[in-house]
Amino acid sequence: MSRPFTALAAVLLLLIPAQPAAARPVAAAAPAPAGYRVGAGIADITAGVAEVGMLGYADPAQTTAGLASRLWSRAFVVADGAGKRVALVSAEVDFITQAVQVEVLKRLQARYGTAYTDQNLVLTATHTHSGPGGFDEHVLYNLTTLGFEAPVFEAIVAGIVRSVDAAHADLAPGTVKIAEGTLSGANVNRSIEPFRANPAADRARFPDAVDTRMTVLRFEQAGRSGC
């Protein structure tokens, strides 16, 4: 399988202008680009562990009251032999806001120029409801925090950037693997009645009323692996 990566290999033939037959060299082929380089990085994005509105349940009474476990940003960078690269980030927040994306890109471009742009930086969230809010620029999503929380925003942005920095520095020859299988008993349908109102053909695709497909993307270096 090839999501989000596809094998890239190109052969460039160097054509030599015609010469007399006795002196004509054999046309040379440039070596194909090398395989993937992969790197992984992790950084802390914990902030607002006391008396800050949490994000997820839209409940102003749900505020932080201590630290049970830290929140992290995990980054993976994959580069091919032609110099193209992609950075994948999974951050333990409810969702990625536009404000976070814009600031992360601004800081990465100050470090790496055009190496990371909105075309090859993929920021994703675990959708945890167990973290602070207030890191958006839109009022709606800051209601439970009664406004913008600059320390939370800074911790998330700076942590994501540090995780990409670490993954970038960790780049080394490796492989990218992807697999798909069935995982049962791990999820539930929270809207079962609307689901049952779907056409029979749609319901038949999901006999357990949930999607049981699990996709795993794995990055490996020599003697090291992560997923």
Automatic annotation (TrEMBL):
Residue intervals of the Neutral/alkaline non-lysosomal ceramidase N-terminal domain: 36-222
UniProt superkingdom: Bacteria
Residues that hold Zn(2+) according to the record: H127
Gene Ontology CC entries for this record: extracellular region; membrane
Cofactors, names only: Zn(2+)
Parts of the chain that traverse the membrane: none
Molecular function per GO: metal ion binding; N-acylsphingosine amidohydrolase activity
Signal peptide start and end residues: 1-23
Gene Ontology biological-process entries: ceramide catabolic process; long-chain fatty acid biosynthetic process; sphingosine biosynthetic process
Annotated InterPro entries: Ceramidase_alk (IPR006823), NEUT/ALK_ceramidase_N (IPR031329)
Keywords linked to the UniProt accession: Metal-binding, Signal, Zinc
Cofactor note: Binds 1 zinc ion per subunit.
Name recorded for this polypeptide: Neutral/alkaline non-lysosomal ceramidase N-terminal domain-containing protein
Species lineage: Bacteria, Bacillati, Actinomycetota, Actinomycetes, Micromonosporales
